[in-house]
Amino acid sequence: MPKAKVTHSSTAQSSTSVSRTPVRINSGGTPLWYKIIMFGLMLIGLAWLIVFYLASSHIPFMVDLGPWNYAIGFGFFLAGLLMTMGWK
């Protein structure tokens, strides 16, 4: 199979004019407030489910919500879990 002909003048010009060193654009990572909200939502969801399981009969508004307590607890937890995709 024939080899391609490479001119040395074209490769010399491109290597001197352009820097090929990788540069990190966002080296700061995720801000602290993002992490606090993310973990806070997951903990609120977990706490909601635990309180509902242990003491729902003693808390009037939780009795009125009924099975919607599961949706609320898992909703908070899922919102925090979805935020982990933006964590760097």
UniProtKB/TrEMBL annotation:
GO annotation, biological process: cell division
Species the sequence originates in: Corynebacterium tapiri
Lineage of source species: Bacteria, Bacillati, Actinomycetota, Actinomycetes, Mycobacteriales
Keywords (A to Z) from UniProt: Cell cycle, Cell division, Cell membrane, Membrane, Transmembrane, Transmembrane helix
Role, per record: Involved in cell division.
Keyword Transmembrane helix: yes
Primary location recorded for the protein, binned into one broad class: membrane
Disordered, as annotated region: 1-26
Gene: crgA
Protein name: Cell division protein CrgA
